[in-house]
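Progress against Task 2.4 (sequence-to-structure conversion) is shown through the following example record, which the project officer requested during the mid-term review.
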Amino acid sequence: MSTRTTPAHAADSAQLDLTRRPRRLRRTAAVRSLVRETRLSADMFLYPLFVTTGSGTRREVPSMPGVYQLSVDEAVKEAAAAKADGVPGVLLFGLPDAKDEAGSGAYDPDGPVHSATRALKREHPDILVVTDVCLCEYTSHGHCGVIVEGEVANDPTVELLVRTALSHAAAGADIVAPSDMMDGRVGRIRQALDQAGFSQVAIMSYAAKYCSAFYGPFREAAGSAPAFGDRRSHQMDPANVEEAMREVALDLDEGADIVLVKPALPYLDVIARVKTEFGVPTAAYHVSGEYAMLKAAARNGWIDEQRAVLETLTAIRRAGADIIITYYAREAARLLQRR
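Structure tokens generated for the chain above:
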């Protein structure tokens, strides 16, 4: 007669007497997908594009591998390719040929953003066009507004931002996105849009834009580094969250349709607070420095880029963002299709 012995691990398992085994719901990809709490999809992405003058131009930004300065014709092609990948819209930034102290290129109807907006709406009317409303890419000093006695003057700057937003709406923008952090600009822009017959144009306000170290690569891409000083007088102190709640409340009272937190990853708590307390459409900007860090680590073989990208964007979504602005929009959309 043979004697069968019970493996030690089986005996130990029997003694555990577990009625709940969370690992059951992690066993296979199909099960994990079935119970996944946070869903990430390409239709919540906006793809930032840097538009310059000329034609046939596609210059890679050294600090942002895979990101390019694009002429209008190339920007249209890139936006169409993103749409084919499942990304519904673009956020346009302009790179003018010339700059001046008042940033007049921001509201030049023949500027790169205006030209790209018209071309996109003519050739691909189903692509959502969001335009950045700020002066920093257009001023010779690189600041976000008019300089008076060495400081950014709020009220004169607001009037130029209104002029810029109106010019973008006239070109066909679906959404204007003031990113300057001047006081009162949302209300003035809303009033001016409505009076000019653009009541259908929405406002995505950079309501909580922090004075962050993570904007460096963007400033190279947009040529918008300040020639002196910094932007602490108008962008938010990274230490503050209650102030962000006040900023969001003010912008909503003034007529903002969507509020945005920038940057994203260092401010996930702010995104979560905004979404929980206000319950309005909330955007987050996965900024240039966050993108560049992932690219650099991946190129050095330190991380799996594809996994890190989806994990990062899922975290932003999990925090409460309904809209994610990311330079990874196209790549992430393709990765999600393969899931």
